[in-house]
Amino acid sequence: MAPICAANADVLTCLHIHFGHRSFRPGQGRVVAAVLSGRDVLAVMPTGSGKSLGYQLPAVILPGTTLVVSPLISLMKDQVDELNRRGIPSAAVHSMLSNEARYEVFDAARAGKLRLLYVAPERFASDDFLRVLHALAIARFIIDEAHCVSQWGHDFRPDYRRLRAAAASCRAIDGAARPPIAAFTATATPEVRKDIVAMVGLDEPEVLVAGFDRPNIHLRVVPVGDEMEKHELLPQLVSGRRALVYAATRRSTEAASATLAAAGVQAAAYHAGLKDEERTRVQDAFAAGSLRVVCATNAFGMGIDRPDVDAVVHFAIPGSVEAYYQEIGRAGRDGRPATATLLWDYADVATRQFLIDGPRRERPARAGLPRGRADGPGAPDPAMDAVEVARRKDIEHRKLQRMIGYAETGHCLRATILHYFGDTTAREPCRACGTCEPQGIDAYERELVRKILSGVARGGERYGRRKIAAMLAGETSDLPPNLAGLSTTGLLRHEQPDTIERWIDATVSAGLLAVSGDKYRTLSVTTRGRDVMTGRAGDLRMSAPARVAAFSTWRRVRSPRGLAHRHRPFSNRW
Ligand code: ADP
Ligand code: ZN
To answer: Are both 59 and 189 inside the same structural domain?
Structure first.
């Protein structure tokens, strides 16, 4: 079967003609080239990064049919529909298909009409299917969600163990013993990678890990001495922001939510122990944007697709780096600055260990909650024997140790995570983590400062800090009319006026705002402030008011009251 795109056509032209994209996303170009080269490939890319293009584009260029093994029927259907819509003839074979429809697909495949044929892994147990398969010339044997072959992964599927033999039995387009295999996964831990190579039988594969960095997420670890310190810090970490707070236990989600409510921050708890109606209510309110903060166990987030989450706070250490990265990955999906903060107390490790070792409950399947993913580590298969249980516990303990390593590292936090995932392109310092920029402000705060500068400029540089703060907070009742209707009025309506005042102080200290010498104390924007405001000054380095001060001295100051003391110099200065 002739390819749609000539083999010597420029790959980018092909990308544009068939997929409508003008350029590759990070890592895609290398993956496409590797798959085209005819070597075996292991490509590790996060979900949503555009993994599928890594085999769909080669499928359009290469002669023969590209076979794609995928365990997710709904995903398969979506992709096949999309490909056909784009004029790339494709089909899927899975258990949901009627016999009639299946034979129709087989006929199309045998007639060489399909560029891509998607199959569920259990098809390889069917003689009917294998007969069809052996009649085809297979360009590439693609294994999607390849971590399913590994017991180290979170989604082991015994049917994946058949794939090595299945690939070996395929007829290649160029007379080779078998078609080249390209395995794709979003799970990048070293154990899983090693397993995939061994179990699928990849032959000296080109291993590509790409796209894991989320440069707009600022990473921070804040060591705390006890629960009380966490509760003191929490309101400042999420106030004004759209945020997710992840806690280890149901009770802890409720305690965090109560602390926020007491501090005037609108929040709700979410966990598998709530009634279905309550869970739906919280999920819907967060999705609709009316609820800004959710304190949750890891049950929350699946199926939540708000792109504008500003902050993810971990109220306790999660069970693994994978879980951590998946959870913080829900921040800043729109590419805007976001912050991930881990409140780190060694005492929380015991809770995690208990969740791993403790008696495991089989949780009832509920709408929207995949079984075993509800709270804590995966609930076991009831049929699992004692040896298997012990083996899984051992894996989970080791994963927890790696997460502790992250919390305690003195190295760049981003590089630590990326290296864990096998991305060797990570460079230190990243300049957007608590190690590389210990005194700095995060990107959300940088925006806050820009908004303050804009507010002062819009106000005509004729007002003092109280009026500017009230204007930005949208509290217009006592404001002169010309401050009440500015484009910047209410720009920071999710922040408290006194928080904004403290930030104005910090902005003055950083030399971005000036204060008049007379009794009116009017604010004006300095030349440097103007550069920051307009984005001309690339890098904004300054210290935040109390909060970051609290972070940097936290290791030394243990008194929960310490925080209140550190506020004082700021509020007394004027
Ligand atoms: P994954 O399989 O990694 O979860 P997909 O392959 O479904 O992700 O891609 C996610 C989205 O990104 C899709 O909507 C896809 O059209 C889009 N996409 C993929 N590659 C590119 C690209 N080079 N430019 C723009 N959009 C792209
Ligand atoms: Zn860093």
So the answer is: yes
End-to-end CA distance of the chain: 79
Asked if residue 288 and residue 189 are part of one domain, the reply reads: no
What confidence score (pLDDT) does residue 494 get? 84
Please tell me the total count of domains within the chain: 3
Instruction: Give me ligand 1 centre to Cα 217, in Å.
Output: 20
- Do 452 and 392 lie in a common domain? no
Residues 186 and 92 in one domain: yes
Q: Is residue 251 part of a domain?
A: yes
Test site for ligand 1: of 17, 19, 53, 55, most ligand atoms within 8 A of the Cβ:
53
| Residue 549 belongs to some domain of the structure | no
Shortest-distance Cα residue to atom 11 of ligand 1: 50
Q: Is residue 5 part of a domain?
A: no
Atom index in ligand 1 nearest the CA of residue 46 equals 3
56 lines ligand 1 (CB under 6 A): no
Residue 16 lies in domain: 11-209
pLDDT digits (tens, 9 = 90+) for 123-161: 999 999 999 999 999 999 999 999 999 987 778 899 999
Q: By C-alpha distance, which of 406, 522, 407 is closest to 462? A: 522
- Judge if the beta carbon of residue 25 lies within 6 A of ligand 1: yes
- The pair phi, psi for residue 353, each rounded to 5°, is -65, -35
Ordered strands of the 267-270 beta sheet? 217-223, 338-344, 311-314, 243-246, 293-296, 267-270
- Rounded mean pLDDT, 57-78: 93
- Residues 529, 466 share a domain: yes
Please check whether residues 122 and 249 belong to one and the same domain.
no
Q: Whose CA is nearest to atom 27 of ligand 1?
A: 50
Ligand number nearest CA of 75 is 1
Q: Is the CB of 50 under 6 A from ligand 1?
A: yes
State how far the Cα of 365 lies from the Cα of 379, in Å rounded to an integer: 11
52 lines ligand 1 (CB under 6 A): yes
Residue 541 has pLDDT above 90, yes or no: no
Pairing state between β 116-119 and 65-69: parallel
CATH of the domain at 74: 3.40.50.300
Q: Which atom of ligand 1 is nearest to the CA of 53?
A: 6
pTM of the model: 0.69
